[in-house]
Amino acid sequence: MFTLAGNFYNWVKKKQEKSVTIIVLGLDNAGKTTLLYGLKDELPQADVTPTIGFRPSKLISGKYTIQWFDVGGAKNFRRVWQSYYPEVHGVIYVVDAAAPERFEEAKETLDKTLESEGIPGKPVLIFANKQDLDGCISAHELSQKLGMLDRKDCCHHVANCQAKPNEGDPVDPRIGKALKWLLDAIEKDYKSLSERVKKDMEEQKRKEKERKEAQRKRAEEAKAARLREQAEKEAKEKEGKEKGASIEMAVDSGKNTSSEDASKETEVDAVVKTEPIVEIRQSAALEQREEEPRRRSDGFGSPPSNRLPALEVEPSTTRTGNTLRLTDLKPMPPVVDTLQDSPVRKADVTLPNVVPSPQLYSHEGTH
Fold first, then answer.
1. Rounded CA gap, 348 and 353, in Å?
2. Is 29 annotated as belonging to a binding site?
3. Is 27 annotated as a binding residue?
4. 6-36 burial, b for 16+ CB within 10 Å, e for fewer?
5. Beta-carbon neighbour count of residue 155 at 10 Å?
6. How many angstroms separate the CA atoms of 146 and 121, rounded?
7. Is 5 annotated among the ligand-binding residues?
8. What is the pLDDT of residues 137-159, one digit of tens each?
9. Has 185 been labeled as part of a binding site?
10. 130 a known binding residue?
11. pTM higher than 0.90 for the full model?
C-alpha cells in the first residue's frame, strides 16, 4: 500500500514538474553572469570573467527545471541572440543602472529584442542592477528610460537588485523575488508557451535546413562556376597556343617563300643586268662590222681626229674616161680662223701624212 502511494506521489510530482528555458541578455559589463549566480541562490565568484559566446547552465527549483542561456553582450555578438529566441519561455534583461551614458544603447537593444521573431508574447523580467553604486537610478526611473511604461502589449516587470553583494552579505533577496514573478508569469501561460516553443523550434529547424540546403546549393553552383571558368580559361589558353603555333608556322613559311622569292629576284636581276651589257656588246660588234667595209673602201680607214678630211671629187663635164683632171679637184678648205690666236702661224703649219700631188703637165708639154 505504501509503495502504491509512493508511486502515485512520484507520478503526480512528475506531472507537476515543468521544464523552462530562460535566456539572460544585456549589454556587456551589465552584470549578467554575476546575476545568474544570484538566480541560482549562490554567491558569485570573486573573479567573474566576461561571457564570450554562450554559457548554458541548469537549475532545479521546486517543480521547475530551468535551463539558462547566458549569452555574451558584446556588440559583435548580439546578432546571435535571435538564434536562441524560438526555444525560450521567458527573457531576463540586465541593465547597469549606474551607467547613464549607456541607457540609450540599452533601450535600442531591448527594443530590437522585443520586436524580434520568437519574443513577442513572452514574459520579460528587467533588472536595474548595481543599486549599491552611486548615481544609480531606481527601477521606476529605468522603466521610463527604457520606454517600458508605454509598452502595454508586453508582459514585463522591472526590479532593483545588487547582483554582487557586499562582502559577508547573502544573495540579494530581491533577485529570488523577481525570479518568482517570471516563473509565475510563465506558469499562467505555460501550455501555450510550450506549444509555441515546440512549433517555433520546428520552424527554426526547417529554416535552418533550408538555409543549409541553400548554402550547399550556392557552394555547388560556385564550384561549378569555378570549374566552368577554369575550363573556359584552359580552352582559351589552348586556342591561343594553337593560334600562336599556326602563326609561327605561317611566319616560317613566309620566311621560306621570301627567301625563294629573293633568290628568284636575284637571278632575274642578274639576267636583267647581264642582258643590257650583252646588247651593248652586240651593238658595238655590229657597228664595228658595219664600219669595216667603209674602212676597206677608203683604203686608209677612217682618218684620225687630227687629220684633214680627204679631198672630195666632184663630177665634171670635162672629165673623160678615167682621167683625173685638175678641174675635178676641189680646193682645200681654208685654215680655221682659230689658228690666228694660236702661237703657230699659218706658214708653219705642216700637214702630216700628206702625199705630194703628182706634177701635172699640160697637154702641150712632154710627158
1. 16
2. yes
3. yes
4. eeeeeeeeeeeebebbbbbbbbeebbbbbbb
5. 16
6. 18
7. no
8. 999 999 999 999 888 888 999 99
9. no
10. yes
11. no
**Residue 129 labelled as part of a binding site:** yes
Summarised one tens digit per residue, pLDDT across range 23-80 is: 999 999 898 988 988 888 888 776 666 666 557 778 887 788 999 988 888 888 888 8
HSE of 15 in the Cβ direction (CA atoms, 13 Å)?
Answer: 6
Taking the C-alpha atoms of residue 98 and residue 280, their distance in angstroms, rounded to an integer, is 124
Grid cell 700628206 is found at 354
Task: Please check if 26 is assigned to a binding site.
Answer: yes
Please check if 28 is assigned to a binding site: yes
- On whether 256 is known to bind a ligand per the annotation, the reply is no
CA distance 125 to 160: 11
Does the annotation flag 45 for ligand binding?
Answer: no
Q: What is the 3-state secondary structure (H, E, C) of the chain?
A: CHHHHHHHHHHHHHHHCEEEEEEEEECCCCCHHHHHHHHCCCCCCCCCCCCCCEEEEEEEECCEEEEEEEECCCHHHHHHHHHCHHHCCEEEEEEECCCHHHHHHHHHHHHHHHCCCCCCCCCEEEEEECCCCCCCCCHHHHHHHHCHHHCCCCCEEEEECCCCCCCCCCCCHHHHHHHHHHHHHHHHCHHHHHHHHHHHHHHHHHHHHHHHHHHHHHHHHHHHHHHHHHHHHHHHHHHHHHHHHHHHHHHHHHHHHHHHHHHHHHHHHHHHHHHHHHHHHHHHHHHHHHHHHHHHHHCCCCCCCCCCCCCCECCCCCCCCCCCCHHHECCCCCCCHHHHHCCCCHHHCCCCCCCCCCCCCCCCCCC
Grid coordinates given for 81: 541572440
Using the structure block, give the residue that is written with the C-alpha cell 617563300: 257
